[in-house]
Amino acid sequence: MIYRENGQFKTSYRADQQIFPIAQDRIAIALLLAVAFIAVPMLASDYLFRAILIPLVIMSLAALGVNILVGYCGQISLGSGAFMAVGAYGAYNFFVRLDGLPLIPALLLGGLCATFFGILFGLPSLRVKGLYLAVATLAAQFFADWMFLRIKWFTLDTPSGSVSVANLQVFGLPIDTATSKYLFCLSVLVVMALLAKNLVRGAIGREWMAIRDMDVAASVIGIRPMYAKLSAFAVSSFIIGVAGALWAFVYLGSWEPGAFSVDMSFRLLFMVIIGGLGSIMGSFFGAAFIVVLPIALNQFLPALAGLFGLTISTAAIVHAEFMIFGALIVWFLIVEPHGLAKLWSIAKQKLRLWPFPH
């Protein structure tokens, strides 16, 4: 009754090919955007912005980029942290060295730097796949760590490799409060998600999915594996690079190469696995799960131990987080390999039939 499609007729190809063909989806997305852009800035506290919402929005953008490469094109990557680092330091060098350069062009140029870096380390995908490709992309992580720590030019000759930015502005408006940072990051996420959704719906997205399913058969029907794989690396690296620049400029403000370690790459991969491979919505679900779960455990575990008259240390909470992460990843791989996005899709299918099963 709630999610019925009866009576929603399409009278043109344009109406049939729109992103949200069901009216309920369009209404839900409009309400969600209204809440995110209007209600949340009015109601959320400064702590909620800085601890949850801003990291959630930026990590959703990074997970979106990883999902394009891993979920849609099937190319396993463990170098996402390196792409974020290249985007962050590339944007920093353009922003500092080019006097008067606005923030948005600096972020886009940082994303382009990550694009070229991703294409360079995506070249092994033309010859290897699977775990071999994962190791090849992992090399990008170690190379980026060495490059930004040893080559002082990237960090303006600072001994520790730590850099910082200040006085950020967009169209003359300062980006200094938690609310303005959240709205700016959310705007970038909405634009990037819309572009990514249109890409995966188009011809290039179908090429990525054909390569993912069976690259030999894809090449037989005329798809160029080199073009498809490198374009996936390019688009994915660009989105991840922009996310890395936002993470450094907006969230951290001051950072060093350790901020984009291999742990970041694994976290992004876990977001995609838990959220759902090959799903734009799954990127948001996975990022929300990974960002919110540690904070929830920090609040829940001490309260649970207090009910039994016990005390739990901070180190024990951290170990519990790792164990729960590992258990959930194994559970999702066994029970629901398509992640939270598949559960959401099943729920929508149930609503289409409820309360009539026929």
From TrEMBL:
Residue stretches spanning the membrane: 27-45, 51-70, 77-95, 101-123, 130-149, 181-200, 230-250, 270-293, 300-318
Record's keyword terms, sorted: Cell membrane, Membrane, Transmembrane, Transmembrane helix
Topological relation to the membrane, as annotated: Multi-pass membrane protein
Protein's cellular compartments: Cell membrane
UniProt key word Cell cycle: no
Predominant location category: membrane
Protein name: Branched-chain amino acid ABC transporter permease
Taxonomic source organism: Acidovorax lacteus
